[in-house]
Amino acid sequence: MSDQLASTSLMATEPLLHSSVPLVSILIPCHNAAAFLAATLESALAQTWTNREIILVDDGSTDDSLRIAREFTGRGVRVLTQPNAGAAAARNTAFAASRGSFIQYLDADDLLSPGKIASQVELLRKQESDAVASCAWGRFSSNPAQAEFVDEAVFRDFDPVEFLVLAGETGVMMQPAAWLTPRHLVEKAGPWAAQWRSSPNDDGEFFARVLMASRRIIFCPNGRVFYRSGQLTSLSRARGEESRRAVFFSYESITRNLLTRENSPRTRRACAGYWQRFVHDYFPSPPELIAQAEAEVTTLGETVGRPVLGRKTALLANLLGWRNVARLKFLLGR
């Protein structure tokens, strides 16, 4: 590693959330993101909140990512390297090397609006220390000016349990860069689940733990995050067996923590929603995990039901049953 983690001893032991100018750590995991990395780093450097540190961890890139990242060291970007271990491990490395009272996670192909961090810091400094901040986010493929801000159901203040209930029932999400989190809540939640190299829901699992450690979600109407989606290398597109097992683990963690915080009809229904989604998204493989997910749905008092299908698939499912259609798609690799 190019920068020893002995610098961990420099970390603040008591977050100074209400100091006049708290330090914000922008933490960027990077693996083969050369095509987008410069734009991401420019968006971090353009933040109007100037008391910040930017730490990029190159996770064994084989393209020009590391070279591009090092071109920004003269502008204050700190670059660490590690053998490829996955995005979660890279985020843990970056956090261990950071000193900020607030933590901003940022993937190497996403963008922040210039005032995003400043507006969230100002909101959080007026709140109790156990609040986290969110903001609006939109998807784009190449031009951020064309981003579509579609998940408006989460663009408001929330009780943390209420947020996870909504996510379980409907599948809505908060893009990970939309959060700004006090350091002590990250520490209380624990590290990212680095045992999974490829996990499409590592952010959902991690931030569910952060939310269960918090008391309130404050929505910031001024900040924006631009989420580059549709890329062939995106973790959210991963469909291999390791990815499926990682998603299963994430739902186990989310539902366990949610029911520990509140075991009620609404949280049980939401937990059933997470498991229904696993069955609908991944049936029929791995079969033992599908069976466990179906058993969880039944235990929680719900039924698996039929997934929402496109018009053509629905017509075929009417003839063959949705499970047989899913088996056929799986066999065809679709």
Tell me what the structure shows.
The chain is α/β, with parallel strands linked by helices and 334 residues long. 42% of the residues lie in helices and 16% in strands. It contains 12 helices and 8 strands. The protein has a 5-stranded mixed sheet with strand order 3-2-1-4-7, sandwiched between helices. It has a 3-stranded mixed sheet with strand order 5-8-6. Helix 1 links the parallel strand 1 and strand 2.
* Structural class by sheet pairing and helices: alpha/beta
Helix content: 40-55%
**Number of helical segments with 4 or more residues:** 12
Number of strands: 8
Mean pLDDT: 92
Beta percentage is 15-25%
Strand order of the largest sheet: 3-2-1-4-7
Order of helices and strands: EHEHEHEEHEHEHHEHHHHH
Q: Low-confidence runs (pLDDT<50, min 5 residues)? A: 1-15
For this structure, the quaternary state is: single chain
Instruction: Report Rg.
Output: 20 Å
Q: How far apart are the termini?
A: 39 Å
User: Biggest sheet, open or closed, and with what strands and sense?
Assistant: 5 strands, mixed
Q: What is the molecular shape?
A: globular
